[in-house]
Amino acid sequence: MFDSIVLNRSIDGPSLTVGEIAEALLFYQNVHIVMDTSTLLGLIRSIGHNNVIKLLSLPDIKTTFIEEFLGVYTQESKNGAEHALLSAFISGSDSGAQLKSWKKRLNYMISRQGLTKSETEVFIERFKKLVVIRKLASDHFISGGVISTAKEDLNDEAYISAAARIIVSDLLVGQTPPENLFYKIYNNKDSFLIDTNINFTEINQLNLNRIKTIGETTPASIAAGILGASYGLILAAHYGGDFYTSNTVSEIIQYRNKQILARANINRKELNSFHNIVLEGSPNISSIINEKERSFEEFLELFSRAKKFKSWLKNKSPDKNLVSAYLEEITTTGWLGSGYGKALRYIASTGAGFIGPITGIAVSAIDAFFLDRLSLGWKPNQFINERVKPFIDINGHL
Asked: For residue 21, which phi and psi values (nearest 5 degrees)?
């Protein structure tokens, strides 16, 4: 149960957060972060560069670093706005200096987060020992590279139409897109034209409070969302296991391949049910950390106590319901309910009678407290009640 997970994007769409990584660490045996520059910089701003190194050094974590970002380039022409899919990286500094290596480019980006020159250099040296570096343009993830495959997806009219509708539906904040909505792409050698009747004015008005983080929605940003889904599908197919990305990308991937995220969706539902039933609807670990109600250092302390809980999860069948397995485990009587347990209890009690009253009291105490703990053994609710609930229960309601 909960063997491995690949983390790519936040469930809400932007860069992956430390809270989401922390929650995955508590439940999954192996956590693989596919990290881009925006996620790395976000983690540095959130928990500090030293804690990023601590996080990536945890034995349960593997990290793949991808410097490039994906996007859609737009240029006006006599035919109107022409667009092109691209993968790119920052190649020049504010002063105009060329940044010819990934280390120099990363140095430039990290130094802008307030680190000194020496702090930046030390961080990069430690960081590169903890990650595997991959390129989207290479054949590592798929033959021909990510952009080449994504361009082929643009030829699938039904897929493009369905993906655009999914993206618009999420942007309309609960409203249903009109039935006559269309979004069409016309390829023109290395670029493409877009024809659509999407009401971008309405979408941007509904998302005014999000524009600072997601930017205005345009025909090109819909294409960028489809590109992101193509990339997510490539990663999910490449790595296997549970794949964690935004809700929008997940929905588009499922349209394209209904089976590839089946296990990930089952496990996501299992965790949601566990949270709602066992943790009584309290704030989840991810939000508690992201909202800074608990520090990363406090999470590391919690995580250091999670070994038995994760071992218990590991030994459960992936076909078992998490809540049912948990309730079944904590309501099991244990071997004290068996004949052997009763016999040992009887011997311990009668043995005290031969020793005398003081020793007898001591043995009774052992019988009542130590022997019960020893015989019943560890239960998963010990970790939940003694560690997790105090961690998430900021106001003392649980």
From this structure: -65, -45
Q: What is the pLDDT of residues 133-142, one digit of tens each?
A: 999 999 999 9
Number of helices followed by number of strands (H, E) in the chain = 21, 9
Please, which residues bridge with residue 81 across strands? 76
| Closest-CA residue to 221 (of 357, 114, 73) | 73
Q: 42 to each of 88, 144, 247, 297, 339, how far by Cα in Å?
A: 19, 30, 20, 17, 58
N-term to C-term CA, the chain: 27
Each residue of 278-314: b (16+ CB within 10 Å) or e?
bbeebbbbbebbbeeebebeebeebbeebeebbebbe
pTM recorded for the entire structure? 0.83
Within the chain, strands assigned E span 4-7, 30-36, 61-66, 69-77, 80-88, 132-134, 183-188, 191-196, 242-244
pLDDT for 299-312, tens place per residue?
999 999 999 999 99
Dihedral of alpha carbons 95, 96, 99, 105, sign: positive
Q: What are phi and psi of 167, to 5 degrees?
A: -65, -45
255: tokens are: 């349209």
What distance in Å separates the CA atoms of residue 315 and residue 310, rounded to the nearest whole number?
9
At 48 the three-state DSSP class reads coil
Distance set, CA 66 to CA 100, 136, 224, 246 (Å): 16, 7, 18, 18
pLDDT of residue 396: 64
Residue with tokens 């595997």: 132
What does the block give as tokens for 153?
A: 């997806």
- Contact by Cβ (8 Å): 70, 139: no
Pairing state between β 80-88 and 69-77: antiparallel
